[in-house]
Amino acid sequence: LQIENLNGLDKKYYLHPTTVPKKFIEEGPKITFHKGDGVYVTDVKDDTYIDGVSMLWNVNLGHGQKELAKAAYEQMNTLAYSSSFYGYSNEKAVRLAEKVVSLAPGDLSAVFFTSGGSESNDTAFKLARFYWHLNGRKNKKKIISINRSYHGATIAAGSATGIDAFHNFAGSKDIDIIQAKSHLTNCELGDKSDPNYEGCIRDIIEKEGAESIAAIIVEPVQGAGGIHISPEGYLRAVKDLCEENEILMISDEVICGFGRTGKMFGIDNWEVVPDIMSVAKGITSGYAQLGGVLINKDIRDTVIQYDQILGHGFTYSGHPTACAVGLKNIEILERDNILNNVNNMEKELMKGFDYLSDKHPHVAKTRTLGLLAGFDLQADRDTDKPFDESIRAASFIVEECFKRKLILRAADFEKGKNIVAIAPPLIVNKEEIEEMINIIDATLTDFKKTLIK
Ligand code: PLP
Known about the structure:
Blueprint: H1 2-13, H2 21-27, E1 33-37, E2 40-43, E3 48-51, H3 54-57, H4 66-79, H5 91-103, E4 108-114, H6 117-134, E5 142-145, H7 155-160, E6 177-179, H8 201-208, E7 213-218, E8 221-222, E9 228-229, H9 234-245, E10 248-252, E11 276-279, E12 291-296, H10 297-303, H11 320-335, H12 338-359, E13 363-369, E14 372-377, H13 393-403, E15 406-407, E16 409-411, E17 419-422, H14 430-450
Parallel strand pairs: 3-15, 5-6, 5-7, 7-10, 10-11
Antiparallel strand pairs: 1-2, 2-3, 4-12, 8-9, 11-12, 13-14, 14-17, 16-17
Helix pairs in contact: 4-11, 5-11, 12-14, 13-14
This protein binds pyridoxal-5'-phosphate.
Family: Belongs to the class-III pyridoxal-phosphate-dependent aminotransferase family.
GO molecular function, one term: pyridoxal phosphate binding
Keywords: Aminotransferase, Pyridoxal phosphate, Transferase
């Protein structure tokens, strides 16, 4: 009765993000979470689920991590909040800035703190434009992003997002943000015969003119768009293109950062150094709302010469409690050698994927980088043939896994694309991976019986 009451209040008062409102009003919440422990979460009905996607790819150290809770508690008892505006500062923000810079690749030298990924990407775009502005290149304003990317929900980050479903709500887009039509293809290497050349990054630079372009933003591994791992040479080619044309390269590390891909940052897998890097999510494992933008030495040295007010910032920029949690989170990542676990569990997950694709012919393109994993479901994987649109294969698998108490995520925004995403907390163990694979295995068997005749 109490739960029904809660569901009634939920439907009445709470407008949910990224949810189908009409369905929500009819059906109420799918699950109301109550508590968590490691890779498991328990709902208000006392049913326990495996969190196979770390909620929103962020609960990297798993649920119920007491040390993170303690760090927040202690900081809240000392100084819960203080401003970072007008020259004010706090110790935890300073120490976290130093720590994050020490982990970042190349000459990334300073951090601007935000409260999440969208704010980080908006800040990255503004900083890129501001850098060119300060250099007297006021026309360099345009930002190029990639097809199938996800960069956030604010106007600018949403405009950069290359998934149409996220544009319905925007009202209008930032006209200086251009989405490349290409998707991780060879045209960036200069191959004009590539069928994807039209609308690829290189083509956009040629058409718009480098003098109008401030930055290119990429995710080293696209998450929400369907776990697309940058192919070998791709990020290097983008970086070279940036250098040739005096364009800044932004790496969106909101999902990839802080160990998700088996290296500290996603881009470290390719040894490319971006000019700007945006982070969020894994910086606190989701225990506090925090993001940041790292800038290279040249950008830092340029911006710090500015002698008027830097008219940008958020009330929660450098939030002491969030930063205390971030510091503790990184301390645990290093102390417990979490990256090592990620690399070991990547192998276990791939073993599981091999088993699934041997047994189920519709499982295609199994892939993982660290613990950012996915697979496609196809009618015929040998000919790359998608399912008929009426067969919502990825949604079916995700729904069925949910009934069996495993939370996964579908990426099926595009016609014919059926991708299942898996990204468990980085502390997952072998038995828990096996448990996940067994559940997926059972749902794939059901899928064949139910949807494929
Ligand atoms: N960038 C990437 C790659 C993301 O996956 C997300 C969120 O999923 C964002 C940015 C936006 O972050 P936030 O939701 O914290 O604003």
